[in-house]
């Protein structure tokens, strides 16, 4: 994956970063750590400017997250009711759980979206419930952009400081992402086996 990302960044420059960061948030297996890290390396080599790198990466991240937000927004909170009634067992959810999540997003949505921007895998997934529970468009975009900018600054400067050694991050990011996915599956299967409706 590293070679493909490198080729696209070198061929497309800031547009390559922009495109990859959109793609990374629609298809999470592409790691933002690698994209922005390589961008940071290119800054250290004098082939990119940090300001433009962060602008391209943050706008791309926000657009990718907004895609999933719109999917949730179009589906809508109230359209969930028949799905939860019918398939709630498989989601290990009752309607009261969905209402509690709706209340959570209504009260703390911006904090949830901001904090989840720093969590592997979950930073993209959080956009769907934000849309489902009708978090405001402007509020979502502002807090997503803020979280994305902070995360991208960390990654880009890490690449800038670590230089060429940052290329080896792909050897660690891939297995780490796999561990996160496997862990999520195990937790889901355990919850599915032990879950009982309260009603």
Automatic annotation (TrEMBL):
Compartments reported by the entry: Cell membrane
Domain of life: Bacteria
Membrane topology type: Multi-pass membrane protein
Record keywords, A-Z: Cell membrane, Membrane, Transmembrane, Transmembrane helix
Residues in VTT domain copies: 30-160
Transmembrane segments: 12-31, 52-71, 111-133, 140-160, 172-190
Chief location category: membrane
The protein's name: DedA family protein
Source species of the chain: Sphingobium rhizovicinum
Lineage: Bacteria, Pseudomonadati, Pseudomonadota, Alphaproteobacteria, Sphingomonadales
